[in-house]
Write a structure and sequence with these properties.
By secondary structure, the chain is mostly beta strands. The chain contains three helices and 37 strands. The chain has a 22-stranded antiparallel beta barrel. Strands 1-2-8-9-6-7 form a six-stranded mixed sheet. The longest helix is centred in the first third of the chain and has 28 residues, at 2-29. The protein is globular, with a radius of gyration of 28 Å. The two termini are 40 Å apart.
């Protein structure tokens, strides 16, 4: 009876309350209110609270630069470097902890991706407007995603159709005659089903040769890229799937103007061309059977097909790569303090590589076209690895976290290896946290597929293996472009790291200070040896000494309202054994400095971003002697500075941004060795340590038509 009376009383008073509210609203309408500003800033970088030293680059950080693709998304990041591998094809590589991107495991939505032939150009395969966030972890990462991570992981999260009903578009153009258009949209079919579509088109259509060496500073690239995905969410079952298709034409080499083709060459202009097709599909299934303990079983499937046909002058390299990846995993929280994750995985790789050359040393123009054989005499290389892992996490109120994992993997031909990894975090208070990690990583190397841009060099490419014999490493004449047969070789390394993160109260604000040190010790590594001979490029799999030391310190502070500054410094000591000598890795900067300023005053209608990069000098490969006795190039290169800046004007449903990159105009002098003699045996476009083009300016507009938020 009391409950009934209470309900009647509530029902009786509700109309009176509503009338009172309406009267209050009417009175407010008749009054003039002073302006009230509620301003919030979404952080551009969010550091992980877990045991792994990781950070998330949010969409707010990605809008501070043009970020046309993944390779351009680390301009303001102090940890990740992106540089050109050569001046002819435009191949770029990530460097993390002072080592090249092949030692960084690339993931898309926590699925291993972009191995092998896709690696040199994969940074251009992910358009920036498609990305929701990027997670960067350093050191030996979790064993869940495989054995390949040596220096860390970079995971890209695409925009999810289940999060919002919206349509986005982006149009971009720059002073290098590059045009780009992107569009993505999602729609909720029901409360559980969502579907999304992402489209990308880019076209760099004009030859640029600022240094007048007769070669394009960057190749002309035309790319079509699309992704369709859908998702189903229910309390006990989650399903996500998608398909993706990419087509890219990349054309570089000599330009038509200036008469740079050799008069005595019957081959005319030196042409570089790559035609790529890539198709992917994935499916994720998660069964949640105990929500209280976060207990779930998941099945992840991913497949890809990648075909690349390439030309480097009179050399032709065609490759087909197929990949199938599957993972079955189980995870549960026994208590809030104890977590267990276990799983099984299968990875299958198929490579078919063909090589063709026109022998310009002969009077005739004879052609040879043959598959590249492995040691077993087979042209198709198949690599199947299956494994199992277990990972335990102890979490004491986020004060002490210990994560220990181990996985074992075995190849179909009987090779087996183990990958242990441990991470510890201790946070005694809210000001400071300490981390330590140790772990092992392995990686199979497909020498030519992963380094196909080396074919642009006139040097002969030869393979050598563990404890190479003098017969393989020698300067004796060999038939040009004859490759030593070989199977994929395994790399093995230990990585150790310590880091600290501090949030220090200072003048009413918080100073974020981070310091870290990582040591990578290779037990077996594949190196590219430029030093042994000026006539050969040796791809050597060796157990000789090779390591890297990396120390970094960075600080972020909100200087004034709406303005945040970041300063960072990193020191790299990277050495490998070349021809029996322990030397600095060539073309590697010894240090990097970074200073960024981001200012978004008032209610955020304007945003100003600027970045200064200081890139240290380093060692060049050993120069050879020219006919006149002078060295072919200097033995070292000097440091250089780069400045980029962007101004953004925000509106309700769109924003306009204007910016510039490499505003200091620094360009590597003579990035292509013997550019005036591309058919000679001293031609080489692969010795790149810095920018190959000067200042670039761009203009773009972003549209955002959001219908309804979903969380």
């Amino acid at each position: 009876m009391k409950q009934l009376l209470a309900c009647i009383a509530i029902a009786t008073t509700m109309p009176m309350q509503m009338n009172a509210q309406q009267d209050s609203v009417k009175q407010l309408k008749d009054q003039t209110l002073q302006e009230v500003q509620v301003v919030t800033r979404r952080p551009g970088m969010i550091r992980s609270r877990g045991a792994v030293n990781a950070a998330t680059i949010t969409s707010a950080e990605l809008t501070k630069a043009a970020c046309c693709n993944l390779g351009e998304s680390f301009t303001t990041n102090p940890s990740v470097d992106v540089s050109y591998s050569d001046a002819a094809t435009g191949a770029k590589q990530i460097k993390l902890l002072g080592l090249s991107g092949t030692y960084v495991q690339m993931l898309t939505e926590n699925i291993p991706n972009f191995r092998g032939v896709a690696a040199p150009y994969s940074l251009g395969y992910i358009p920036g407007p498609w990305m929701q966030s990027i997670q960067v972890s350093k050191g030996a990462s979790s064993v869940k995603n495989g054995y390949e991570s040596i220096t860390g992981q970079i995971n890209v999260e695409y925009k999810k159709p289940q999060l919002t009903d919206q349509v986005n578009a982006n149009v971009y153009g720059n002073s290098m005659a590059k045009f780009e258009a992107n569009a993505d949209g999602s729609i909720h079919l029901t409360d559980k089903w969502s579907v999304g579509m992402m489209l990308h088109y880019e076209d760099k259509y004009k030859d640029h040769d600022e240094n007048h060496d007769g070669f394009m500073d960057e190749p002309n690239v035309r790319q079509y890229n699309s992704q369709l995905r859908w998702a189903y969410f229910s309390p006990n079952y989650i399903y996500q799937a998608g398909v993706r298709a990419l087509k890219e034409d990349r054309n570089g080499g000599q330009t038509m103007h200036g008469g740079h083709a050799m008069a005595d060459s019957k081959y005319g202009l030196y042409i570089i061309g790559l035609q790529t097709q890539r198709y992917e599909t994935f499916a994720k299934n998660a069964f949640i059977f105990d929500q209280e303990h976060n207990s779930n079983v998941a099945l992840i499937l991913n497949g890809s097909f990648h075909q690349m046909d390439s030309q480097y002058g009179v050399k032709y390299f065609d490759v087909i790569q197929r990949n199938l990846y599957a993972q079955l995993l189980f995870e549960t929280d026994f208590t809030p303090m104890h977590n267990l994750a276990t799983g099984l995985s299968l990875n299958h790789e198929y490579y078919n590589e063909w090589y063709k050359t026109m022998d310009y040393t002969l009077a005739s123009t004879s052609m040879t076209y043959a598959p590249i054989m492995n040691l077993k005499g087979k042209s198709a290389m198949k690599e199947t690895t299956y494994g199992a892992y277990a990972q335990y996490t102890f979490n004491l109120n986020d004060k002490l976290i210990i994560m220990a994992g181990i996985r074992g993997d075995k190849t179909i031909d009987g090779k087996s290896f183990f990958t242990p990894r441990t991470h510890i975090k201790w946070a005694p208070n809210d000001i400071i946290s300490l981390r330590a990690s140790a772990g092992k990583g392995h990686r199979y190397v497909h020498p030519l597929a992963e380094n196909s841009y080396l074919l642009g060099s006139a040097r002969h490419i030869k393979y050598a293996y563990i404890d190479p014999s003098p017969a393989l490493i020698s300067n004796s004449p060999v038939s040009p472009y004859t490759f030593q047969p070989g199977e994929p070789q395994l790399e093995e390394a230990w990585n150790y790291g310590v880091s600290t993160a501090m949030n220090i109260p200072l003048f009413g604000k918080t100073l974020q200070l981070n310091a870290e040190y990582y040591y990578t010790d290779f037990k077996q590594q594949t190196i590219i040896d430029y030093d042994t001979s000026p006539d050969f490029l040796y791809i050597v799999n060796t157990k000789d000494k090779s390591y890297s030391h990396t120390f970094q310190i960075d600080a972020t502070y909100p200087l004034i309202q709406g303005m945040t500054v970041t300063a960072a410094y990193r020191r790299n000591i990277v050495k490998s054994t070349y021809d029996g000598q322990l030397l600095d890795k060539p073309l590697q900067s010894k240090y990097k400095g970074l200073f960024t300023v981001s200012y978004k005053p008032g209610i955020g209608l304007w945003q100003f971003d600027a970045t200064l990069q200081l890139n240290g000098g380093g060692r060049m490969p050993k120069p050879y002697q020219n006919e006149d006795g002078t060295p072919s190039w200097a033995s070292t290169f000097k440091g250089f500075e780069q400045v980029s800046a962007q101004v953004t004007r925000w509106f309700r449903h769109f924003s306009i941004y204007l910016g510039g990159e490499n505003l200091t105009g620094f360009k590597q002098k003579n990035p292509i060795i013997n550019a005036d003699s591309p058919w000679s045996m001293r031609f080489d476009p692969t010795l790149i340590y810095g920018p190959v083009q000067g200042a670039m300016f761009y203009l773009g507009i972003r549209f955002n038509l959001e219908k309804k938020d979903r969380i």
